Every structure is written in C-alpha cells, then in structure tokens.
Amino acid sequence: MIVDLIILICFVILGTLAGALLSLIPSLHIYNTAGIALIIWIQAGQFIPFDMIAPFFLSLLTSFTFISAIPMTLIGAPDESATATILPNTKYLMTGRGYEAVVISGIGSLMGIIILAGLSPVMFKIVPLTHRILAPHLHWIIMAVIAYMLMSEWPKGEGIGETSIQRLLHAWGNLFAGLLTFILAGLLGLFLTSRPLIGPEAGFQNLMPVFIGLFAIPGAIQHLLSRQNIPNQFIPRTVEITSKDVAVSGLQGTIAGGLAAYLPAVTAGIGSIIAGHTVARRGDRLFIISGGVAKVLYYIGAFLLLYLITPLTPGGIGRGGLAIILKPVLNPLPRELLLMIGIVVFTACISFLFLLTASRWMISWLKRFHYHALYWSSLALLTVLVFWITGWEGFLVMLVATCIGLIPVFYHCRRSNCMAVLLLPIALNMAGHSSSVLRFFQLE
Amino acid sequence: MENKVSTSGQTDEISCPSCGRYIGPYTFCPYCQTSIDSRVDIRVIKWIAVSGAIAGLFLLWIGLKYKDIPTIKISDVELTFNMAIVRLEGVIIDISINQKKNSIRFTIDDGTGQAVIYSKLSPLESVYNGNLPIIGNRIAAIGNISISEIYGVTLFLSSPRRFNILEKMTIKDMKIGDLNSSDIGILGRFKAKVVETRTFSTGRSLTLNDASGSIELVFFNSEIAKLSDEKSAKLFSKDFVISIVSRVDEYHGKLQLYPVRPEDPQFLSVIENVEQGNYQKGPE
Predict the structure, then answer these.
(1) What is the percent of chain A with per-residue pLDDT over 90, rounded to a whole number?
(2) What is residue A157's predicted lDDT score, i.e. its pLDDT?
(3) For residue A403, is pLDDT > 90?
(4) Of the residues A107, A313, B121, B276, which has the fewest C-beta atoms closer than 10 A?
(5) Do B161 and A399 touch (CB under 8 A)?
(6) Rg of chain B, C-alpha, whole Å
(7) Residues A228/A428, Cβ–Cβ less than 8 Å
(8) Strand (E) or helix (H) holding B255
(9) Contact list, A42 vs chain B (CB under 8 Å)
(10) Would you give the distance in Å from CA B164 to the centre of its chain?
C-alpha cells in the first residue's frame, strides 16, 4: 500500500516536472507532446506500471495550466503593429509588470483548482443530467456559439480614412478578415476530416500539423517580426488584486471554462468571449484571473468528465484532447475520480510554487538572451516534430494552416476564428449535413 | 524608400513607421521606442498569408479529391491508428440496432480480426431505403478509427454513402464433415440433430450431428436470453433437428460453430419431423 503510494507520488512529480519543462517552450502545446509521450510509454510498457498513465498525464496537464502562463506572458514583446491584438498579459509585460501578470494568472489557476475540487461532488449529480438534456441539442448549440463568435466582432473598426472606400475598408476590414479566417479554417477542417493526407499510422496526431500551423507558428512569426525588446521587469512582493476581482473573475472563469469543457470544439478563448459578455465586466486583472480559472476547468475539468460514469452516462463524457489521447489505454472507473482530484490539487500546489521560481528564472534568462532565440528554437522544434510524426504530407498541411493562422495575426481579428477547423465539421456532422457538404466538394 | 507624404503632412523619412509621429534623425522612436532600421514590410506577410491560404487550400482540396483512402486490415490497427480515416472491408457477423439512440452497430470480421462499425441509423436507412445490409454481407466502410480500452476497434462512419455492400451473401447449406480450418470466419447454414447439451458458466453448448460428422455449437447467455421460451426449450432438448446459420470459428484448436442472430426464425428454426434415417445417431 505504502509502496504503491510512493510510486504514485513519484509518477505525479515526474509528470509535473515534465509538464513544467515542456510548458516553458513557447508555442509548444502540451497536447502536441502528450500523444508522443503515450506512444513512448506503451513501448516501454514492461518497465512502467500501466495504471500510472492517468496520474502521470493528469499531472502533466495540470502543470501545463499553470506554467504555460510564463511563455504566454514573458516571452515576446509585440511590435506596435500588433497593438489591437495585445492581450492584458502583454500590457503588463510592456510596463515591467510581467512577473505580476504571471502570478495573477497562477492565482487564477489555483482558484480554478479550488472551484473544480469544490464542484466535483456536485458534478456527479448535475453534469450527467444536464448532458442527458443537452446531448440531442449540441449541434444547434455549437451553431449558436459560431454565430455568437462571429457577430461579437461585428463591426469593430472605426471607419477612419480620407475616402469613403478607405473608411469602409477600415471599418469592415477586421470583420472580413475574421470571416475569411473562419471560412478558410472551417474548409480546412472539413477537408482533412473527410479524407486523410497523413497516413493512418500517424492518425493519433493527424490534427497536430493543423494546430501547430494555425496557432503556434503564426504566433512565433509575430514575435520574430517584432523588433521590440522586453523592458526590465520588476519583481514585486505583492500583487494588485481585490476580493471583488477574485469573485467576479471566478464566476467569469467558471462560465468560460465550463462551456469550453463541455461543448465540443469550444476552447477556453471562445468560452471567455461568451463569459465576458455574460458578466459584463472588463479589465485586465479580470481577464488574467478568469483566464487562469478557465484554463483549469477547460483542460482538467474536461478530462475529469471521463470519470462521470453514472446510469445516465454509462460511458462517461469524454471531452478534451487528453481524453482522446488516452482513450485507447484508459479504462476510467468512477471511484477513481476522488484520487484524480487529489492528484490535481497536489500537482497544482507544486506547480504554483514552481511558477514563481520559473518566472523569476525566465526573467533573468531573458536579460542575457534575446527572446528571438527561443522562438527560432521553438520553430525548428515544431517543424521537426511535424515532419517526424506526420511526414511531408503533414508538413504541407502545416504550411497551409500557417497561412490561414497568419490572417488574424496581421489583420487584427480574433485568432479564435481559427477554431472553425473543428467547430464547423463537428457542427455539420452533428446536424447530419456533413455528407451533403462533402458531396458538394466531391470528397465523399 | 519612397518619399510619401503622410496624412499629417510629414514625410515618411522623418516619421516613425509605427506610430507616425515626427522623430527627425533618431534611429529609435522616442515615443514608442520602435526601431527605425531593419523593419519588415507587414504588407508582404499579409499578402503571403491570404494568397497562400487560398491557394494552399485549393491545392489541398485537389490533392485530397484524387487521393485514395487506405484500406487496412483490422489486425494491422495499432495504437497510433487512433483517429485515422481508413477503409475497412469485412463480413458482417452481427448487427445491433438501438432505436432509442438512433444508432446501428455492425460487427465485421475481415479474416484477421473483428471491428465494430458505428453509424446513425436514420441516414443509413434513408440511403438503403430501409433494406439495411444483413449478416453475411461483405461490406466496405470508411470512417474514423477509434481504439478504446473498453470497446476495442470501432470505425465511426462519417457518411452513410461511405458504407457499401461489396457482396450480398447467400448463405450456403454446409455439411459439418466438410469443414476445415480454412473455413474459419465463414457463415453457413447447417441442418443437424442436437445429440448432446452441456451447460458452462457463461452459456450452453450443443453437439450437432449430421450425416457427415459432428461439431459443437456454442450459445452464450446473452444469446439464449433473446430466444423465446418455446424455442429455447426445444433447442436444448436432445433429438430435435435444427436448421441454423452459424459462423465457423476455432477454440483451443477445435472447430466450433457460433450462432448468428438465433432469435430470427430465418437464421434458427427447430425442425421436429425429420426422418431419423437422414442423421447419424448420437452417443446415447
């Protein structure tokens, strides 16, 4: 019993450390490496206990929800051309308060963990019942999310220019860019989910080149094009948050994370747009804290839905990337939910402490080395990863996706429009129209 | 650089390219701190992004349109195949319909292994005008592979038109004595007498005898539960002659028969009045 506990703690710490180190690499998403880690694990199956898979990967994911705030906030100083797309974390960085932003984000994630742990007993009762009611309606709910996402940008520009054409283009430019991104990403998703370009042996990572292309590489290019330097960062002993901030952002983050965890293809970013409008509050601090809460519920909460095995949901409710990655090897049992929550809380506490140390270390590192070096390394790593796993076919898909992903970066519309790559095929499939659309494109 | 006049009336050579303010001879903008040298024209990247996205997507569409979806053997499916879009071929050995969930599951066998093909029921019914494929049909299906610790290999059908009947099975009458290991996986109709019954923990087995030989027919409890009481009583009584559609399989190196849809009278019928002389007598 004690030996089992020690082995479990060892694997949880190992997962936390692996997650923390991988999360420090800018533009690299944990799902890109989790699939590969699983294959390595299976190859080494005889040396590693099989029942440690869930604890290891869950701690990897939990660690990511905390530590990913470091590259998101501290690595990279956007050029002025990207003013419209600067996130509050970056505003903090540019005013020398990057460390504070990272800590606030960590506090948000800790809050998310408390909310998740507190809600877990209620989840067993409410979520299966809600799922029973909502499951037949998911197609139109996702369609409504798409409509909301597009309409919430309508129109953003101010209409500045000397001629009427210039004013029109200025006012509607962002909107058109958003729609174009949505349509192109949606078509890319439809094409790739109907016919594979990548061989079946790389099926487990068939969307990796798409996501690296849509999100990771455009982000890296944006930072590499910037000639701006990171200003000196101050390490404060206190952070500026109030109890009201915590309460409001907790609510906002819970709505955002809850929506993203449950609705297929809806990410924390899209959930945050809806949640932001729901609570009708704005502010950089609110954004950062609620972002931390939403991340936890979106990534970890979605995975834990697998353990909601009840008479209403006999197969659990599989959501999120990790659930898909681990599905072939995982046989979740409802009694394990409490253990999983324990692992999440334990990992979260270690990760928060590591976050404080790692962000200070990153700040001092960035004084000596230019952040461009990290992005060049990251770009090389991602390209090699795509080539290694998915071959030249995956590389081509990545190039096309990169071009689509660059549109929101340079035309200043929401990058969440790129999520149409999943939203559109899933919504059409659920509504039973994907067959007609594929027939139109002669891909059936 | 072209000496254009900006909207504020200042030339580009003395204005910050980022914020547009007058900066004179500075190499760094004193207002927004941007560098004046070595800047990349964002319009070029914008152009590459939009044209690359449209052209790339178009080429991708053309490429995919003419690319075949790979046909794989079920035994070749490995962990890395999870989520892959593939084509499977095989013989339907079981069908399960759930009207409440509007779903249908075909279990197929391709000779190397078994997989489940899962689809929504109503679209498939509309494509086949209600005449759904039956057990014994050889089919091909295209969809997403899902490997699960609980459910094994499942192919989720993305479109009903991606499910095709390759060969309609006419179930042939077969003799027990003619069976050998090369027949494993095939379906046939056997007419034989039940000469012995045995109960085991998860079901019952019957020893069938026809003029050519004898073989064991295995019923699991789940299949027995689907039979009517009358049919069940006759089936598990000795000396009744039955006509049954079964799948040939092997257990511990010995050939066995497994019933196919025994609840369906077309697949299993108990014949009472058959001349005794046509069948070998079983062990008393």
Answers:
(1) 30
(2) 64
(3) yes
(4) B276
(5) no
(6) 34
(7) no
(8) strand B254-259
(9) 79
(10) 12
Q: Is there a contact between A102 and A73 (Cβ–Cβ < 8 Å)? A: yes
Q: Which of B167, B188, B204 lies at the terminal end of a domain, its last residue? A: B167
How many Å separate Cα A363 from the centre of its chain?
24
Total of domains in chain B: 4
CB A443 within 8 A of CB A189: no
CATH at residue B234: 2.40.50.140
Report helix, strand or coil for B71: strand
> Which pLDDT belongs to residue B4?
43
Cβ distance A204 to B150 less than 8 Å, yes or no, reads no
Together in a domain, B251 and B209: yes
Same domain flag for B263 and B179: yes
CA distance B117 to chain A (A): 17
* Token pair in block for residue B282: 């079983």
Place A183 in a pLDDT band, splitting at 50, 70 and 90.
very high
Q: What is the pTM of this model?
A: 0.79
Identify whether B283 is part of a domain.
no
∠ CA B199-B204-B210 to the nearest 5 degrees? 110
What average pLDDT score do residues B57-77 get?
Answer: 91
Same domain, B188 and B213: yes
Return the H-helix or E-strand segment holding B103.
Answer: strand B103-109
Which of B167, B193, B218 lies at the terminal end of a domain, its last residue? B167
Q: Are residues B185 and B133 in the same domain?
A: no
Q: Among A200-209, A255-264, A356-365, B227-236, name the one with the lowest average pLDDT.
A: B227-236
Query: Domain check: are B162 and B242 in the same one?
Result: no
**Secondary structure class of A227 (helix, strand, coil):** coil
**Is residue B53 less than 8 Å (CB to CB) from chain A?**
yes
Q: What is the distance between the alpha carbons of residues A414 and A150, in angstroms, rounded to a whole number? A: 9
- A38 CB near a chain B CB, below 8 Å? yes
- Mean pLDDT, range A370-390, rounded to an integer: 90
CA–CA dist A106, A348 (Å, integer): 9
Domain of residue B31, residue span:
1-36
SS3 of residue B20 by DSSP: coil
DSSP letter for each residue of A156-176: ------SSHHHHHHHHHHHHH
B284 located within any domain: no
